[in-house]
Amino acid sequence: MMFRRRINYYPYLLLIILFLILFIVFFFDYRLKASIIEIAKAKAQITVMETINTVINQQIVSKIEYQDIVDIHKDKQDRIVMIQPNTIILNKMMSGSVIEITHALDQLSEESIEIPLGQITGSKMLAGYGPKMRVKAIPVGQVNVDVLNKFDEAGINQTRHLIYFEIKCKVKVAVPFLNEDVQVSTTVPLAETIIIGNVPETYVGLDDGKVPVYPYINVK
Questions:
Q1: Mean pLDDT, rounded, for 124-142
Q2: Average model confidence (pLDDT) for the chain?
Q3: Would you say 72 and 199 are in contact if contact means Cβ atoms under 8 Å apart?
Q4: What percent of the chain has pLDDT over 70?
Q5: Residues 56 and 105: beta-carbon distance below 8 Å
Q6: Nearest 10 degrees: CA dihedral of 23, 29, 30, 32?
Q7: pLDDT of 209 over the 70 cut
Q8: Residue 210 CB-half CA count within 13 A
Q9: Closest CA to 149 of 216, 199, 80
Q10: C-alpha–C-alpha distance, residues 54 and 51, integer Å
Q11: Integer Cα distance of 43 and 131 in angstroms
């Protein structure tokens, strides 16, 4: 009489269950890390932009007028024929801005940005709840400051001339076991005026909207 040998499926079943558990753990770990770093990057960008805007508005913009950084030349008929940026003043403003921004970012790197872990779930109800995850925004690379300008129509025979800073910097977003570099860019209006009449054909120093002044300083 012959007996069939019974195959033991339990080891195979255990292997399959273990494989599924590991797959689920790694999948959710990957998704969780992606969510954490994206939220941390967005939060850091907002915080750095707010810091830069506050510094420039308090330390630079509040202390200048349009006439301080632009020389307006008129003809005998009192018509504006040329607008010329004062590059000496602008250079001082830019170098001062970089120093102030660097100092503010260094202070920011010593503090932590807190993100409720409930925000990672994507639920609006849970976004403000849960333990706080600490994120650091550490400045790396360069703070790059450009002075730009543009002319906008402001009414009948009126043109608004706006001068503003375009500020770019790179920060490292650091969370536990994760870090990633993120580029931050913001624009801060410096001064503006309304030009009555035709826009002058000559704008000394105009090169695709940029004023050729001191470009950047390294952040240590």
A1: 77
A2: 76
A3: no
A4: 77
A5: no
A6: 140
A7: no
A8: 10
A9: 199
A10: 5
A11: 16
Given a cut of 50, whether residue 220 has pLDDT beyond it is: no
What integer pLDDT is reported at residue 122 of this predicted model?
65
Cα-based distances in Å from 214 to 87, 106, 145: 9, 22, 8
Q: How far apart are CA 44 and CA 41, in angstroms?
A: 5
Reported as type and span, the H/E element at residue 29 is helix 10-59
- pTM for the full predicted model: 0.69
The set of residues, in sequence order, having a beta carbon less than 8 Å from that of 93 and lying 6+ positions away, is 60, 64, 69, 190
pLDDT mean over 36-61? 87
Per-residue tokens: 24: 């689920």
Q: Would you say the C-alpha torsion 50, 190, 95, 64 has a positive or negative sign?
A: negative
* Residue pair 87/212 in contact by the 8 Å Cβ criterion: yes
One-letter amino acid identity for 92?
A: K
Q: 114 exposed, middle or buried (CB, 10 Å; 0-12, 13-18, 19+)?
A: exposed
Q: Which amino acid is at 197?
A: G
